[in-house]
């Protein structure tokens, strides 16, 4: 409706639509809404929803079976933005990067730790004062 009637769009509308589109539309449509979330959020200075939109793109890429290099690139961009803006979104982005084992070398199969990610350090950050 926002696009059809040329209403002023906000990131929350795109994010909500992308969230439910997962259940009713092809994954590519969900990704389109999440990219629109990020774009409109950046345009309006809403850094929270910019991070949320970027963070939600990665699972869609995995569901579509996109190449892991593409997924890695998108997740790194989302993580860079989140690190600079929102601590809890960055934590969430790092937690969702479970494909790391498949995208590059790691110390052991039973741990996500590697040269760029310390699993014990990550878990130590998960304290009660964080976003539920």
Q: Spans with pLDDT under 50 lasting ≥5 residues?
A: 98-102
As a percent range, the share of strand residues is under 5%
Proportion in helices: 55-70%
Count of helix runs: 7
Could you tell me how far the N terminus lies from the C terminus, measured between alpha carbons in angstroms?
A: 32 Å
Itemize the secondary structure elements and their pairings.
Layout: H1 11-24, H2 27-44, H3 47-63, H4 68-85, H5 87-95, H6 100-103, H7 119-124
Helix pairs in contact: 1-2, 2-3, 3-4, 3-5, 4-5
Gist?
The chain has 132 residues and is mainly alpha-helical. 65% of the residues lie in helices and 0% in strands. It has one domain (11-124).
Structure description:
The protein has helices at 11-24, 27-44, 47-63, 68-85, 87-95, 100-103, 119-124. With 132 residues, the chain is mostly helical. The protein has one domain (11-124). Helix 1 (11-24) packs antiparallel against helix 2 (27-44), helix 3 (47-63) runs parallel beside helix 5 (87-95) and helix 4 packs antiparallel against helix 5. The longest helix is centred in the first third of the chain and has 18 residues, at 27-44. The radius of gyration is 16 Å and the shape is globular.
